Amino acid sequence: MPLPPRALVALGCCTALSACGGGHHGATDQTNPSAGGPPSSSSSTTTTPQRAAPARLRTCAPTQLRLRVVSSQGAAGHLEATFAFRNSSSSRCRLFGFPGAQMLSPTRRPLRTIVERGDGFFSFPRHPTAVVLQPGDSARFSLGWSDNNEQGGSPATCPRADRLEVTPPNDYSSLEISVRDLFFAPCDGRITASPVSR
């Protein structure tokens, strides 16, 4: 039996409402999951800065040094004087080896001088070692000699020095010092120098 027009209208409305309601769902917050592996990070390499190689420590120049007599002693015709180089500059420096020496007369005339390398009569080492001098530090050395003519000399061959020119190790310039009070009179002009040390 055909439906009346009102029923058809009501049926159409219900169908439309059903279609609209079926498409509506509740709102859901979704967070995109992270990737299955560990989080990616930018790869960076940390490089430790390398220190520059230390500069070679310079040899003490005569202009950096002051020279003084520390002490003197003797026994059985052998005498020895101890001297010290002091670093009077504001920079550290290095000494290594044996000093040189030249005896001078009161009129500053060079006297016969033969410097032999060795050790002191009393306490100084024979083998040189490097000595680093901070500002104000000192390094010592000894000069030894004989004044008893044991090698067949005479007073004329044992002249007494008034001053000494002392050359620091590995240099050509010298420092001058008075030895008037040391009775510095090596026979045949022979002096034994020890290496610089503490």
Describe the structure.
The chain has 198 residues and is mainly beta. It has a domain of 132 residues: Immunoglobulin-like, CATH 2.60.40. 9% of the residues lie in helices and 29% in strands. It is built from 1 helix and 10 strands. Strands 1-2-7-10-5 form a 5-stranded mixed sheet, with no helix packed on it. A 3-stranded antiparallel sheet has the order 4-8-9, with no helix packed on it. Strands 3-6 form a two-stranded antiparallel ribbon. The longest helix has 18 residues. The termini are far apart.
Write a brief structural summary.
With 198 residues, this protein is mainly beta.
From the structure above, extract its key features.
single chain, 198 residues, mainly beta, Immunoglobulin-like, five-stranded mixed sheet, three-stranded antiparallel sheet, globular
List the helices and strands and how they pair.
Blueprint: H1 5-22, E1 65-75, E2 78-87, E3 93-95, E4 100-104, E5 114-117, E6 131-133, E7 138-146, E8 163-167, E9 175-178, E10 190-193
Parallel strand pairs: 5-10
Antiparallel strand pairs: 1-2, 2-7, 3-6, 4-8, 7-10, 8-9
